[in-house]
Task: structure prediction
Amino acid sequence: MVDGRYRAAIVGTGAVAAAHAGALRDNGDRIRLAAVVDVDAAKASAFAETWDAGTVAPTVAALMARRDIDLVHLCTPPVSHAPLALECLRAGVHVLVEKPPTLTLAELDTLIEAAAGSGAQLATVFQHRFGAGVVRLRAMAAAGELGQPMLATCDTLWYRDDDYYRMPWRGHWETEGGGPTMGHGIHQFDMLLSVLGPWEKVTAVAARRARPVETEDVSMALVTFANGAVATVVNSVLSPREVSALRFDYEHATVELSHLYGYTDDDWTVHPAPGHEDIETRWSSAPSAEKSGHAGQIAAVLDALDAGRPLPVTPADTRQTMEFVAAVYASAFTGTTIHSGQIGPDSPFATSMRGAGAPWTAVPTA
Result:
C-alpha cells in the first residue's frame, strides 16, 4: 500500500480489462492501477496510458519481482488463468481472476491449495453477486420474509455468431474449458447458487447445434437444491433475442430479474402472494440506482482487505459453482444424474469438462 491506497496490477488487456480498470478508477480513493502486463507490449503500453497505470511489466514474473503489488487482476484467456494465478499466489500476492477461474476442478483445487499455503488469497470475478437487487433478495430470503423457496428459472440466452469464434482460444475444450455453460451462463447460475445455496443433484443435456466449435453451444439442466427447491438452468449462444433472466418463486412472492449484461433496481419485479403485499413495500424501501458490475465487487474486495476478512468470492463459493459446471457436463455426456460431491479426483470430469469426450468430436468446418 502506498499513499494510503492499495496497488493493483491488471494482467491481460483484452475487452474485460477495461471493466476492471474502470472499477479501480471508481474506487480510486482506496486503490490505484499501478502496473499492466500483456504479451503484446504495444497493447500494454496503450492500455497503461489510457488508464494512467504507473508501469508496464513484461511478464508476471517481472511484476512479482517488484514486490509492491497488493492485488493482481487476471484478465487473460481462460487457459492461462491457473498458471498465472499460481505464480502470483506463490509470490504471496492476492489474485482476483476473471471467469471461468480455471479450466477444470483439478486446476482450481491446485490453486486453493497454493493459496492456503502462501497466505495470499484467491477470489473469482462474479460481479453480479454484488448488485443491490440480489443483495436485497439474499437478505430478505435469509430473514424468512419471503417464505420457503419453491422453484426457480435461470436463463442465459445470448447470441454469438461464427465470427465470435474466430478468436483462436474460443470454442475449444483445451483453451476455453467449455461453451456457454462455462463461459457465458456462469454469471447467472452463480447468482442463482448464491441465493438458493448448495445444490444437491443435476440432470442435464448439452448439444452442439450450429457453431463451429468443439464445445456445446447450448445446455439445459434440472437442479435440486439441498433446501428442496428445484430449478431449470439454460445456457445458449444461439438466441437472437438475448436476455439474462432469473425468476425465484418463494412461498410468499415471486421475484424476477430480466437484463442482459448488468442490472439495476429497475430490472427487478416483485409479485407478492395474496396477503403478503407488504413484501413489495419492503423491497422498494431502499432503492438503488447503481448498476451491477465490477466496481461493486472491487469495493467488497477492498472492504475485506481492510477488515482482514476472506476476499469475496471465496474459493469455497467458486468451487460450488465450478462443481456445478462439471456436473452439467458429466450428466449431459453420461446420461446420468450427478450428485454434489460425486466428481472426485479420479473422475475424468475433474481434469477436463468434456470428461472422456463429448458425443460429438471434430470441430465442424465453417
